[in-house]
Amino acid sequence: MGIGELDREAHVPEVTGAAAAPRTLAEALRARGDEGLAALLRARPDLLSPVPNDLTQLATRAGTRGSVVRALERLDRFALQTAEALAVAPDPAPYPVLLALLTGDDGDPQIEAALPGALALLREQALVWGEDERLKLVRTARELLAPSAQHPSPTGLGPTVAEATSGMSPGRVQEIIAAAGLPATHDPVSAVAALTGLFTDRDRMGALLDSASPEALGVLDRLVWGPPYGEVSANPAPPVRWLRDRGLLLPVSARTMVLPREVALHLRGGRAHRAPEPLPPELGVLREYRPQVVDSAAAGQAHVTLATVEELLKSWDRGGPQVLRAGGLAVRDLKRTAAALDVTEETAAFWLELCYGAGLLASDGEADERYAPTPAYDHWLDLPPAERWALLVAPWLTATRTPGLVGGQDAKGRTLAALGPDLDRAPAPEVRHRVLSLLATLPPGSAADPETLFARLRWERPLRGAAAAQAGDGKPGEDKPGDGRPDGRPVVATDLRSRLARWTLAEAELLGLTGRGALSGPARALLNLPLAEAASPADHGGGVEPSVAAGRAATLLAPLLPEAVDHVLLQADLTAVAPGPLRRPLADALAVLADVESKGGATVYRFTPGSVRRALDAGRTASDLHEFLKAHSRTPVPQPLAYLIDDVARRHGHLRVGAASAYVRCDDDAVLGEILADRRSAALGLRRIAPTVLAAQTDPASLLDGLRSMGYAPAAESAEGDVLITRTDAYRTPARTAPVPVPDGPPAPDTTLLGAAVRAIRAGDRAATAVRKEPAAAPAAAGALPRTSAAETLATVQAAAMTGSAVWIGYVNAEGAASQRVIAPVRVEGGFVTGYDHTADEVRTYPLHRITGVAELADEQV
């Protein structure tokens, strides 16, 4: 829409009289109450950035292309179909014409019942205005939705007869109406009107088509539901020639014909859409379970979530992989992480992003940047299991980062990396919340059919999915649910919302928000949804703070999680079985003394010489280890395990390694001679400097590893000669905050902001529409600032301050922005005027030298 057109639409004078129909969108908005304006600003928050000065500016902004596109993308399918029908209807369109375009000749009770609601939604969002007798679609929306050769309409309709014949010669038009059996006219306008009247007259049009051959009717059938354009040869076949001669097909170029809109509507029985969808698709139930079974399954998966996150971050306790130069994790590091967790790479990427989104994992920011747990991870470990779970899933629900994109390509063909910078997708939180909310509409324990769920989402936001389908996100060749082709073959759906929904279902199952595909009780609490077992209205959530909802979810989950145990079962094959999740001190100590062999309901640990030596390096003695096992085992300590501990402890520390750059000392010079004679020690650069001391050309850590690989059990010593105890001190990043979600447009305004915005717009509109006295000189052009001399300005505002009247001023601020305001001066002194600004609805002070001019109001308007 051009600026001039917007100006004309917004500045038409308001019609007086309560019964007068609005002639512009601004007038329609002016007739709304405060609640109606608040509803518009709530539905389209982009109109508030910044707050419009008055209703004219609000109407202008509501008609801009960007704002209209955003509003259309948030319409459901039937509201969008209603707008599309208005785009092909006459402008303005009476309500019966719109209803006929949606229901057709046969009528449809469901559409008749749903249309008032869809029309009310379009009116609320200022996409449609006017009374039922004169419904007008906002001009920008009509330009976006109306059919054209460059942008076909979703209705499949083509141009009208008048549009298709606009460049046709008058003689050719006369030939068409003659072939159609119409009398000749004196001008092309009346000829086009006569042809249009023929095509919209059901009886005469039916008689004309009855004379057509079956082949000609077959041509029309192929074009009737779109696209309405078809290519023809220089010498078309007789059926096409017959249609062309009678105007049933009109040329748009030398080789292209189009089916006029009026003809298509007749063939469709008056229906603009092939399949209007006034009602959303119903969710299908795939399976039904008892709610207790669902909650138990979800709680089991929630326990697995906590164990997986702990295992992942513990493996990076001393510093994780390096950060790529472009950001994110290298593919090889993702593969190693997936192998360590025994999951697929896609699942590993999800766990990494979950930790990152919860603020438990970040980069350290050093020159050689690496990933590592954050200090928040240590605090998280100290919390009860249910609270730890809530701190993971609450950020996931609102995160815009999308792990499912990992491994795909961006618009430039670059691979998207886990923890990388290009994984934010603004619609993700809305889709996650909507998917879980739809699951909550089913009876407790019911798992939804995914395909019906995806169909429901596509009905709710059809344009958003279509727009994302062209963005190129995601993995090539990935099959997604689709609408189906006419031949029955499935369509690969690439729209982002369907893919986000599919990922949401999988991730919710991994997190324990769903069990066996059905929504769990803790998930309902997290979403602020009513609980089946709620005993009072206070237990129904509904608008509570997110932290409170997370606490309620944790409270519901806590009794369902397995209770931590404080014992293990030692076995003769050098293994220990933990019959459940171990309490933290026991789990940490056992993780040092033994290696995890298998995980599941019962974790199996294996004792090896290396694991026992690890415990001794951590400062434990053999007697400490024996006492530890006796205190925490429900079975006697097996003899092989006791022998293993004693044997490793006997050799542990027999050799001492220090810095020479490194040295080895031992009281038994025969052992040092044995080391020197071993060919495997050549890489260590050892030489004897004393009967009991060997010097090395490598650092102490490498020397320790080399001697251990040769079968020895050396211990590190300090500069004072004391044995160094290897602490399991964890490496942590500096304090890091969790990534902030990328907003999907301006945030939704709260009630306080809406009320203040409505008051400011009303005040500005009263000021803008106030009637002003015309100056003695020639009146200024519309919209121009008033111009008076400094003396006249001072005298007028002083007089207004004395009489308490309001005046109209032009003002230029420090940034050079000009505006018009209506103020009631209270005090004029020191080169400033202080008064109540009706435009801003507050008291303000203005420098007199920035006032371009002043004019009195015709009468008291404010």
Essential attributes:
ATP-binding; alpha+beta; five-stranded antiparallel beta sheet; elongated; disordered N terminus; five-stranded mixed beta sheet; 44% helix; 25 strands; single chain
Tell me about this structure.
One of its GO terms (molecular function) is helicase activity. InterPro entries: WYL_dom, XPB/Ssl2_N. This is Helicase C-terminal domain-containing protein. The longest helix has 25 residues, at 291-315. 44% of the residues lie in helices and 11% in strands. The chain has 862 residues and is an alpha+beta fold. α22 crosses α25. A hairpin with a 5-residue loop joins β21 and β22. The chain is built from 35 helices and 25 strands. Residues 1-19, 467-493, 532-542 and 776-780 have low confidence and may be disordered. 37% of the residues are buried. The strands form eight sheets. It has a five-stranded mixed sheet with strand order 18-19-17-16-20, covered by helices on one side. It has a five-stranded antiparallel sheet with strand order 24-23-22-21-25. The protein has a four-stranded antiparallel sheet with strand order 12-13-15-14. The protein is elongated, with a radius of gyration of 39 Å.
Oligomer category: single chain
Category from helices, strands and their pairing: alpha+beta
**Proportion of helical residues:** 40-55%
Strand line-up across the major sheet: 18-19-17-16-20
Helical stretch tally: 35
The largest β sheet comes out as: 5 strands, mixed
Low-confidence stretches: 1-19, 467-493, 532-542, 776-780
Q: Kindly report the average pLDDT value.
A: 84
| End-to-end C-alpha gap | 33 Å
Apparent shape = elongated
Assess the beta-strand content as a share of residues. Answer: 5-15%
Domain Helicase XPB/Ssl2 N-terminal: 568-690
Protein name: Helicase C-terminal domain-containing protein
InterPro entries: WYL_dom, XPB/Ssl2_N
Organism: Streptomyces exfoliatus (Streptomyces hydrogenans)
